[in-house]
Amino acid sequence: MFTSLPRVAALATAIVIGGAGLSACGANDAQTSGSDDGSSSSAGGTIALLLPESKTTRYEAFDKPLFEAKVAELCSECEVDYFNADQDEQKQAQQLTSALTAGADVVVLDPVNGAGATGMVAEAQGQDVPVIAYDRFIDGADYYMSFDNETVGQMQGEALIEAMDDQGSILMLNGAPSDPNAAQFKAGAHSVIDSSGVTILEEYDNPDWSPENAQQWTSDQLSKYKPAEINGVYAANDGQAGGVVAALTGAGVSRDSLPPITGQDAEIAAIQRILAGEQALTIYKPIPIEAETAAEVAVELATGEEVGETTDTGVTQSDYNGVTSYIFDPIAVTQDNVADTVIADGFYDASDICTGDYAKVCQEAGIS
Length: 368
Prior knowledge:
This protein is an alpha/beta fold. The chain has two domains: 9-147 and 286-329, 3-Layer(aba) Sandwich (Rossmann fold); 149-284 and 332-364, Rossmann fold. It is 39% helix and 18% strand. Helix 1 crosses helix 2, helix 5 runs parallel beside helix 6 and helix 7 crosses helix 8. It starts with 8 loop residues before the first helix and ends with a helix. Residues 47-306 form the Periplasmic binding protein domain. Keywords: Signal.
């Protein structure tokens, strides 16, 4: 099927406005979305969507509603049963069992622990239910959707080194060890940082990606190092970048004296920090193309259609570790290209970003 994926400006805007009110689903209480007319029917098939956590803004604010909207567009009689594991591996395993018991025809699984999710894949496939590994790789899955994660880390590392003129010392905050993507981001970043003139003072693998852990860890490092000794910070995602900024400013570093800090996910707060000069960059991973491609494949599987090949630009269809895979291209966002990336794509409107104190920096950047 694979139609061209549309820009989703209106949906993205609505999602951003409503994102703060979204909450994760309980272990055995799925949120079910049905057809456009409000009715539910299993005639088109039931798709279980299992996401790993809600501390990272993207899952509840973008992945879930974008996926559900695309399924509804393609199959009015399909249902989506949604679960969020709240970073609890055992809870996610229970959710999978619940989804299968409820009659899921396809499972779209973003695992809390990719390496530990092979048993979940086997459980589903043992009931003839195919599994799409979403955003994080799972060995043995039927399909895999993600961005080029090692390239993400390389892009972050290269931008940080450039901002530091290839000299000085950094703190390095990676993602959760249970997240296979985190290992790839880390490997990509190390591949360029380790061969540069930059020195890593301390390194931390954040067990749940949380901004709170990032802030506490950074504050702890400030008891060992003076702020002037920290010339840059590699933060694997925007949530951690926000925690780093909070720790540094809480220690007396002025916002206009912050070192270059990386990020990922193009969260609104990160875009605002970038425009204000408080964060060097974020990596924008256009979630619509990932969520909608996953929805297209899921609908084809649920309705018994043959899964087609994608012709969309920005997508590489390949075999990754024996799994049919769709790999999407990440984009680095800096002060210079906010308007040409997240705004031009309709991911955010300027009005979402240019609020309060950020209206002035938006005007200076030519964003209105």
